[in-house]
TrEMBL record:
Residues 86-235 form the N-acetyltransferase domain. It comes from the Eukaryota. This is N-acetyltransferase domain-containing protein. It comes from Penicillium bovifimosum. PANTHER family: ACETYLTRANSFERASE, GNAT FAMILY FAMILY (AFU_ORTHOLOGUE AFUA_4G09540)-RELATED (PTHR42791:SF4), GNAT FAMILY ACETYLTRANSFERASE (PTHR42791). One of its GO terms (molecular function) is acyltransferase activity, transferring groups other than amino-acyl groups. InterPro entries: Acyl_CoA_acyltransferase, GNAT_dom, Trichothecene_AcTrans. The lineage of its organism: Eukaryota, Fungi, Dikarya, Ascomycota, Pezizomycotina.
Length: 238
């Protein structure tokens, strides 16, 4: 399977949403915040994810996708993954550094409101939040904020990896690393630190360590599960 790493476009959003939904189906945070599978509405969740990705594009966030480039009719060996060209098999969404001392820009402020409005429309269209446990969602947000306040000591801010996910068929093939490198290399050139958090300790902490991250905080969350917070210092060329 040949893969290209390219910036996310509007046209990629449906395939990117499908990739993220599948990549996070067994994620501890996802299972905790959508705690009743009988109430989970996958279409509502897809609409919300699509709106978040639109928000990310509009805010100028660095979002990359890994896309299959092989033509659909190309000869394939039996053990090769059979996916049509253009299928998204990995997504990495980062936020650019935001110095805490600087105010939020007007355009991001406007996009925040637009996202809230779109979510309201989704609530109406799908008759609710599709099984999201809102109480747990806010507990998690609070835990995240506490972590950021404690860890984000660099006054210039951090490149923050908000989402990274690779389809199960494409894992362990270097796709996640290539996706992450798009921003990690930029961070290195700019001498900026990176930050990410994962609710899955194994194998993710080890995977991110191989990318140059180190575990700086492990937070025990209220009901179950932990939040693994990792930072990466910029690498300077020898
Ligand atoms: C975490 C994830 C994004 C990593 O992507 P990936 O494409 O599988 O990772 P890569 O193949 O690029 O591997 C990166 C490094 O980790 C190592 N690695 C990969 N899988 C590993 C595993 N299961 N155990 C130990 N090391 C592993 C690789 O050998 C590689 O190291 P190297 O560069 O020194 O050779 C992917 O596994 C995933 O989507 N998981 C499910 C969703 C998720 O948990 N997302 C993250 C939320 S924070």
């Amino acid at each position: 399977m040949s893969i290209e790493i390219v910036p996310l476009t509007q046209a990629d959003i449906p395939s990117a949403v499908d990739c993220v939904q599948k990549a996070f189906a067994d994620d501890p945070y996802f299972r905790w915040v959508f705690d009743d599978p009988s109430k989970f509405n996958i279409q509502r969740n897809a609409a919300s994810l699509a709106d978040h990705l639109r928000y990310g594009i509009s805010c100028g966030c660095p979002i990359s996708v890994a896309k299959v480039t092989r033509a659909a009719n190309e000869t394939k060996s039996d053990n090769e993954i059979r996916l049509p060209a253009g299928t998204v098999v990995g997504v990495a969404w980062w936020y650019s550094p935001q110095a805490p001392s600087l105010p939020q820009t007007w355009s991001v402020w406007a996009q925040d409101w637009l996202l809230s409005f779109r979510q309201l429309m989704n609530n109406i269209r799908f008759f609710g939040r599709g099984g999201l446990n809102v109480h747990r969602y806010w507990i998690w947000k609070e835990v995240q904020k506490t972590a950021h306040d404690a860890i984000w000591q660099d006054p210039r801010g951090y490149y923050f990896c908000n989402v990274v996910g690779v389809s199960s068929q494409a894992r362990g093939m270097g796709v996640g690393k290539k996706l992450m490198q798009t921003v990690m290399e930029k961070a290195d050139r700019e001498n900026m630190p990176c930050y990410l958090e994962s609710s899955k300790g194994y194998p993710n902490v080890g995977i991110y360590e191989r990318m140059g991250f180190e575990l700086v905080k492990e937070i025990e969350c209220v009901d179950e599960g932990d939040l693994y917070c990792m930072t990466r210092n910029p690498k300077t060329k020898e």
